[in-house]
Amino acid sequence: MHQWAFRELQEMIRWKATEYGIRVEDVHPAFSSQTCSKCGHQSSTNRNLEGLFECNECRYEVDGDYNASKNIGKRLLSLPEGKRPSGLGDGHLALKSGTVTLNGDYTAYDTLSSEEESHAQAHG
Asked: pTM for the full model?
């Protein structure tokens, strides 16, 4: 059932994206929830049972799903030139509350960064 739900979600995303002329790329998610999107340290103990990500190395703390999504986005940006989809612009990932670059620089759209929002949600 679990795999079926993800497959159906992927199909719906592809269908809706095609309707708007948006290309969808598959990016392998392996270890994205265990790897720090700030320093790159990977450990199975970086993510706790409540879904909070706390890096054992640099102490970066954020919602685990948010951290994993940043890692997946960075993987897309780091694909070799021939395998990268066109239209990635200047290598920024647009997030709900700001942008992040391949080297991890984050620029918030407003005064409250998404890391703070995610942290507050994880502890709220």
From this structure: 0.66
